Amino acid sequence: MNSLLPILLLPLFFLSLSCASTEKRIQKNQEVFRQFPPEAQDRVRDGEVAIGDSKDMVRIAKGEPQTITTRETRETKSEIWRWTRPQQYVYPLPVHTTGSGIPSPQFVDAIQFRESEILRIEFLDGKVVVIEEMQEE
């Protein structure tokens, strides 16, 4: 059980970092934060965003996005912010050996890291119009 303790505590550690980061962003942007309505302040403090929120509200609640792209159609031009996290994938990789004269497949674990999108927020005229949170696999 002692060897599982660090693994079990890891999510709590990251949650505490997230809260600490939000508080640091609030402290850094106190003048902007004070201008938010009280219900928006509570939501931002909890790291949540809602339809209609401003870019400042999102930036303080979620931090800087990893990427920002622009989507332009005939009618509108919107901005899309994306947050990602590294994700580890493990899969079996066949390795053929011929030590005994007869080929026999052996397998080793191959590890690959990829960025996995966890949140996408779309802005139109500086306000949130779409929030997409990716589900855990």
Layout of secondary structure:
Elements: H1 5-28, H2 30-34, H3 38-45, H4 55-62, E1 67-72, E2 77-97, E3 104-124, E4 127-133
Antiparallel strand pairs: 1-2, 2-3, 3-4
Helix pairs in contact: 3-4
Kindly describe this structure.
- The two termini are 26 Å apart.
- Strand 1 and strand 2 form a beta hairpin.
- The protein has 4 helices and 4 strands.
- It has one domain (5-133).
- It is an alpha+beta fold.
- It has a 4-stranded antiparallel sheet, with no helix packed on it.
Helix content, binned percent: 25-40%
Mean pLDDT: 84
State the major sheet.
4 strands, antiparallel
Residue share in β-strands: 35-45%
Q: Estimate nothing, just give the exact number of structural domains.
A: 1
- Put simply, the count of helices is 4
Number of strands: 4
- The first-to-last residue Cα distance is 26 Å
> What is the structural class?
alpha+beta
In a nutshell, what does this entry contain?
This protein has helices at 5-28, 30-34, 38-45, 55-62; strands spanning 67-72, 77-97, 104-124, 127-133.
Essential attributes:
137 residues, 4 helices
